[in-house]
Amino acid sequence: MPPLDQDLPSALEARGVSRRDFLEFCSLMLATLALPTRYLGKVVSALSQPQRPVLVWMEFQDCAGNTESMLRSSHPSVAEVVLDLLSWEYHETIMAGAGKAAETTLQNVVKNHKGKYIAVVEGAIPTADDGVYCTIAGRTALDIAREVCSNSAANIAVGACAWDGGLVRANPNPTGALGLEEAVPGVPVVNLGGCPHNVANTAAVLVHYLTFHEMPALDPYNRPLFAYGQIIHDQCQRRAHYDAGRFVEEWGDEGSRKGWCLYKMGCKGPEATYNCPVVRWNDGTSWPVQSGHGCIACAAHRFWDWSSPFYKKLPNVPGFGVDVTAEEVGWGVVGVVAGVTAAHAVGTVIRAHKEASEGSKESGSKPESKSASPEA
Amino acid sequence: MNAATPAATAAGQHHDERLIRVYVWEWPVRIAHWVIFFSILVLGFTGYYIYDPFIISRGHPGFLMGTMRFIHEVTGFVFIAAFLLRAYWFFKGNRWARWRQFLLIDSRQWRGARNMLRYYLFLRREPESRVGHNPLAGATYSTIYTLAVIEILTGLALLQHVAGGKVLGFFIGWLPLLITIQRLREIHFLILFIFGAFFIHHVYSAVLMSIEEHSGLMGSIFSGYKFFPVDFVAADPARIPGEDVLPVAPPGRGQRARRKHAAGKGAAPAPGSPSTPGKPSPH
């Protein structure tokens, strides 16, 4: 890509992005990053610099959903600004080049911008059978990821698959798929879980990197705290109904119409940490719980395995059928013990009667040990 | 109780069937027992509500779930306090409260547990009576204590997940990284039912043993005292070496108890001068 021949504001203006839109975007990024407003000037000036870090976006075992999410962001300024700020050298879905030329571009980035480019990974990386389940231009995904991600300045894993293997890794995981972090251990990774990632968060991470030249603060899963630091439940607009004890009990009932809490319908909001209720989707229009569907904890670790069944409160108990809930298992345990106890009580009473009748038969020669027999 | 009589006679001791009153359950044991009982009752009810809010407050502004969760969390800490008191008493308590009583660590304990199991299966007439609790009961309680530890850890992890906090996070933040929150919830929930099942068995077996032993077992968890023949207590395997053969109640209460006992039934006073367990024998 040729370097900018004009400053960013006028370049943006040429694309129909006004100064006001640009500042709006910068404010949005500040808000997403939870930075104080005094940083606005810093963000604006950093983004206005004619710096163009190279970015490569690699897709492995994915559905391109994160790419779609990025491209379909209808907020004109987000995609435009971020696209214009970074030099996207490689992105399988949107690049014009193909075949050898495209692969050469990737090789050139690794060679010429070693230690300076940003690598974005979308999709899981298969490791079973030497990683043959995903190959690009004859190389396995694992091989490519190892080379590209260990020579980059920063790695961003977008979406559930790149973070922890996602759907591809879900049981029984025939391809041995892993997230980037596990497939290529040792490289610094920022994980942006979620199915798909939220573009606002990914843009915010990039803006943070461009402004402060480092990645934002991370949680134990290497996810940015600004996006994954709070429980969905705590930010949910239906939370008041939860605390009050007002719950939807079936789809379409009175509570459902009134927008009550979806906890009883299996909403995983109380477990998932994400800024979904605040940032929302489609330019802040809505998000799943607002629109009446329970959260499936798509931003939780290995959510396909661990948050499913999505419409039940608790996972299935291992060793029992999929139709058996944890509660049924629990009551079953209580029932069995109660039954055995009742049977034992009956047995004890029968024995006591037997002993009593035997004792009356051989009265006088009552053994001493019988003095302890129950009176029942 | 007579199960141990042959052992006592075999040991060449004088056959003494007179009852003495033994202070078995000290106050921390009883306090912990009842606090744990009532807190599990409250935790079970509120916890089940948190799992399945079966009361729906319609229209009227309320704070039902909030209240239930508040009670659950506060009671959880009461439970932890009672548990810690009991755990402390594993090391400081009398011979029947010690940790050894809860583990099948020697052949005698194993044999006792086997005998008790055979008794429950109607393969043996006499239960394995002990002054404290029998080895099988001890093993059951240690299982329940283990489950209580799991319940406490998972509960704290779930609390930390919603409440945050650096201190809590330091102590328990590692757990949700190992086991996912949903699975922790499930474990936390399922153990409630094991507690419920245990409750049924516990009450039943306590009543059963009370009838079999005539030792005042049901009353002992309120008063602390059980009644046993002298030679049975003398042969008590739980005795810590160096301790009195016949432990008697602490001086003040014990003397009063003995006086009453002697006046009422003419039972034997404890042989030897009274002394608390742990002190060297006056013999």
Look at the structure and give the CATH class of the largest domain in chain A. Alpha Beta
**Tally of contiguous helical segments of chain B:** 11
Task: Give me the side-by-side strand order of the main sheet of chain B.
Answer: 1-2
The CATH H-level superfamily of the domain at 27-213 in chain B is Transmembrane di-heme cytochromes, Chain C
Biggest beta sheet attributes of chain B: 2 strands, antiparallel
Q: Which band does the percent of strand residues of chain A land in?
A: 5-15%
Specify the overall morphology of chain A.
elongated
**Known CATH architecture of the domain at 27-213 in chain B:** Up-down Bundle
Give unreliable regions of chain A as ranges: 365-376
CATH architecture annotation of the largest domain in chain A = 3-Layer(aba) Sandwich
Portion of residues within helices of chain A:
40-55%
The H/E string of chain A reads: HHHEHHEHEEEEHEHHEHEHHHHHHHH
Computed CA radius of gyration of chain B, to the nearest angstrom? 22 Å
CATH topology of the largest domain in chain A: Rossmann fold
The CATH homologous superfamily of the largest domain in chain A is termed NADH:ubiquinone oxidoreductase-like, 20kDa subunit
Strands in their spatial order, largest beta sheet of chain A: 2-1-3-7-9
Q: What do the pLDDT scores of chain A average to?
A: 87
Main sheet characteristics of chain A: 5 strands, parallel
CATH top level of the domain at 27-213 in chain B is Mainly Alpha
Sum this structure up briefly:
The complex is a heterodimer of chains A (376) and B (283). In chain A, 43% of the residues lie in helices and 9% in strands.
